């Protein structure tokens, strides 16, 4: 009988979302539940190759990580006609690499750092590290909600009753590895700290903090980031240009996140409690 394809049987392909070394991602509607998903289709990796390890890493990581509001949710993965498919939550706002074209406000930059720090705190709490945090792997999801649901006050007439909540989510778990016996597959060198490139894996959690720091610095207009050379080394010696459109305290926080000494960088947990990111009413 003609070989049936789960992809075409179960999904309607709306449009291509993008290409990468990872393969191609598509926006799809599931014919049964009517929901929209992002499905990545990639060539079946050669057995025993690094690509196979990366592909398996990704599915294992999603299985362990389950569900978190700041990690892109995984639904299913399967293999057919020499391709691998992974079905993930669709985030409707693009990735931060598209959002980078316009410099973000201080509030927005703090939200990105705070929300991704919550996602990293969750990943790190499972003894895992992401190792490829960068604008292209952070997806934006905007959802309308009535002010009642979101707990904000409304001024009565219903259409102003809607508020738009912006959520940032960590995606692409292809480089995730365990902290204790890591098989490090390096991510994008523009966002990696020096210690990883000299194969010092003693502070892997803090490598994600470094990458989040440079991601935020770039979103704040500090980029484009070098892949190598003198500027690459200068940044890793702790020289981050001051971003004048942001407060001194936010600039200092970014500097601490990309500190040359990983032990001087704040943990994901510390970031979620940072007075700079979520100023608590003074007690
Ligand atoms: C290129 N591209 C664009 C998007 C939509 C952003 O508004 C996208 C998504 C994903 C992925 C993705 C990344 C890595 C692995 C698997 C997937 Cl489905 C890629 C995506 C993903 O997992 N969820 C997405 O929304």
Tally of extended strands? 9
Mean pLDDT: 91
Uncertain regions: pLDDT < 50 for 5+ in a row?
none
Biggest sheet record? 5 strands, antiparallel
Written description of the protein model:
The structure is a single chain. The chain is α+β, with helices and mostly antiparallel strands and 283 residues long. The protein has 10 helices and 9 strands. The strands form 3 sheets. The protein has a 5-stranded antiparallel sheet with strand order 1-2-3-5-4. Strands 6-9 form a two-stranded antiparallel ribbon. A two-stranded antiparallel sheet has the order 7-8. Strand 2 (23-30) and strand 3 (36-43) form a beta hairpin. It is globular, with a radius of gyration of 20 Å. The site of the ligand Cn1cc(CCO)c2c3c(c(-c4ccccc4Cl)cc21)C(=O)NC3=O has 19 residues, from strand 1, strand 3 and strand 5.
Structure described in brief:
This protein is an alpha+beta fold.
Task: Give the key terms.
alpha+beta, two-stranded antiparallel sheet, 34% helix, 22% strand
Which helices and strands, and how do they pair?
Elements: H1 6-10, E1 11-20, E2 23-30, E3 36-43, H2 50-65, E4 74-80, E5 83-89, H3 96-99, H4 106-125, E6 128-129, E7 138-146, H5 147-150, E8 162-170, E9 177-178, H6 194-197, H7 204-222, H8 229-236, H9 248-257, H10 268-272
Antiparallel strand pairs: 1-2, 2-3, 3-5, 4-5, 6-9, 7-8
Residues 17-18, 22, 25, 38, 40, 72, 86, 88-95, 139, 171-172 line the site of the ligand Cn1cc(CCO)c2c3c(c(-c4ccccc4Cl)cc21)C(=O)NC3=O.
């Amino acid at each position: 009988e003609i070989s049936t394809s789960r992809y075409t049987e179960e999904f309607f392909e709306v449009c291509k979302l993008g290409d990468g070394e990872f393969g191609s991602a598509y926006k799809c509607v599931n014919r049964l539940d009517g929901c929209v998903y992002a499905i990545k289709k990639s060539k079946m990796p050669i057995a025993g190759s690094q690509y196979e390890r990366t592909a398996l890493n990704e599915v294992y990581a999603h299985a362990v990580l389950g569900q978190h509001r700041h990690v892109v949710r995984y639904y299913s993965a399967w293999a057919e006609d020499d391709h691998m498919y992974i079905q993930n939550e669709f985030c409707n706002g693009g990735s931060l690499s598209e959002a980078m074209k316009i410099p973000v406000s201080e509030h927005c930059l703090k939200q990105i750092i705070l929300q991704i720090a919550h996602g990293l705190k969750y990943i790190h709490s499972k003894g895992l590290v992401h190792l490829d945090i960068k604008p292209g792997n952070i997806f934006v999801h905007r959802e309308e909600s009535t002010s009642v649901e979101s707990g904000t006050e409304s001024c009565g007439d219903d259409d102003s009753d809607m508020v738009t909540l912006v959520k940032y989510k960590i995606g692409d778990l292809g480089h995730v590895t365990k902290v204790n016996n890591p098989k490090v597959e390096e991510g994008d060198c523009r966002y990696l700290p020096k210690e990883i490139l000299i194969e010092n894996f003693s502070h892997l959690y803090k490598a994600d903090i470094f990458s989040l720091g440079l991601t935020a610095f770039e979103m704040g207009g500090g980029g484009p980031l070098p892949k190598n050379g003198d500027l690459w080394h200068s940044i890793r010696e702790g020289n981050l240009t001051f971003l004048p459109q942001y407060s001194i305290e936010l600039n200092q926080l970014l500097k601490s996140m990309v500190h040359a000494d990983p032990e001087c960088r704040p943990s994901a947990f510390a970031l979620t409690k940072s007075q700079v990111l979520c100023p608590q009413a003074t007690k």
